[in-house]
Design brief:
Blueprint: H1 20-32, E1 37-41, E2 50-54, E3 60-64, H2 68-77, E4 82-84, H3 85-88, H4 92-103
Parallel strand pairs: 1-4
Antiparallel strand pairs: 1-2, 2-3
Length: 106
């Protein structure tokens, strides 16, 4: 029986390679908005490491990324400020944006 065999891990500490579509989405978000900052969300037992991008008005997007180091390199290539969510927390403008979206009529 193979039920209890370990699965081979794929590349990267989170077990998931960076997908080109995810990087293209993040790049497009940065290029189409102003005042974008990056926030690294750490891996948890439920989710993998993610990169959260927040624009000046609070609009945001997130995608899984292989590791915090890959996220830092990505941000450096785009001259994007990058922070660790564990240290900085989420920006208030993101919370305000979410609240505006909830109050918007359907």
């Amino acid at each position: 029986m193979a039920w209890f065999r370990r699965r081979p891990r794929s590349a990267g500490p989170s077990g998931r390679r960076v997908e080109q579509a995810d990087l293209e989405h993040l790049t497009q978000f940065v290029r189409s908005r102003r005042g974008v900052e990056g926030f690294i969300e750490p891996q948890t037992t439920v989710t993998e490491t993610t990169l959260l991008l927040v624009a000046h008005d609070g609009e945001w997007t997130r995608r899984r990324i292989e590791s915090p180091e890959i996220a830092r390199r990505f941000a450096h290539q785009l001259s994007l400020p990058i922070y660790d969510v564990k240290l900085m927390g989420y920006p208030q403008r993101m919370r305000d944006y979410n609240e505006r979206q909830r109050r918007r009529p359907a």
